[in-house]
Amino acid sequence: PSGDGFYFTRGQNLYRIAAPGANPQTAFDGTSLGQLSGNKVPSFVDWGDGSGVPDVVIASGGRLQVCKGATPAALEWVPNAPSAHLAVARDGRLWVATNLSDRVTISGIGEYSNWQLETDGEDTHTDADAQWVDVGYKENGEILAMQRIGRDLLVFKDSSKCYRIVGSYPDFYIYGVPGSTKPAHRQAVRAVGNDVVLLDECGGLRAVTPSTGYGDVALSQNVAPQVQNAINQNVSSGARVWTVEQFSQLWVRPADGPTL
User: How sure is the predictor about 227, in pLDDT bands with cuts at 50, 70 and 90?
Assistant: First the structure.
């Protein structure tokens, strides 16, 4: 669910079903909103000030796209936006991970369409414009997943390292989270209450939780030991984790297939 509806894909085509309560005759007419710019499993970010139906920004591996308003007619390009496979809203900015890179690019304050970066000789750029930060610079591996934890941002890399970004521009601080973990898929990382739960590619649900030290976080070894054996048997890149808030449940799919 995103915005005031439910979005799903078939191939690279994007579709939308109106939210519950909509007229069932018009909730879904089978018409595609358009084709995603990339071939990655998309990230959806609701963007708004809470006063109306938010826009839905989509990162799928190509250039950022958006569905605007309550009844979007079609996918639109986000002007001057970078290509990205991950997107997260934080501190009034859109944070996106660029493919095959250590870099997180950050939109201007309050605008998902402001991607004006500071360049040599540029005298119109301000602190409110787009910024960037490198995470695990010169370390092998790209950014695999991002997830907010409190006011901080966790960044998981496919080098099995996790980092925590604290603060806002220009006072960014990047800390390594002790231990190693690699999510089985970027869609196998979810916020659950004050924690972040992930399905590790080596098997098992793990959690990043606030520790007793002020502002610190810790990586736990096991979550839900009662179901670990069932989950560990067949973890693959088809793994997914969903939070189902209305039922206070966490749904885990260890691999491609119908079994949760």
Answer: confident
* Predicted local confidence at residue 70, as pLDDT: 72
Chain centre to alpha carbon of residue 96:
8
Question: Do 154 and 177 touch, CB atoms closer than 8 A?
Answer: yes
CA dihedral 127, 162, 213, 131 (to 10 degrees): 0
Closest CA to 156 of 105, 204, 86: 86
153-173 residue pLDDT tens: 999 999 999 999 999 888 889
Contact criterion met (CB below 8 Å) for 145 and 189:
yes
CA–CA–CA angle 27, 86, 225 (5° rounding): 90
Count of CB atoms within 10 A of residue 235's CB?
21
The residues with which 143 forms a beta bridge, in sequence order, are 157
Is pLDDT above 60 for 26? Answer: no
- Backbone angle region of 246, left / alpha / beta, with phi > 0 → left and psi within -120 to 50 → alpha: alpha
Q: Using CB atoms within 10 A of its CB, is residue 160 exposed (0-12), middle (13-18) or buried (19+)?
A: middle
Q: 131 to each of 95, 125, 134, how far by Cα in Å?
A: 9, 10, 11
For 114-233, where are the alpha helices, taking DSSP H only? 228-232
Tokens of 64: 């950022």
Q: Give me the amino acid identity at 40.
A: K
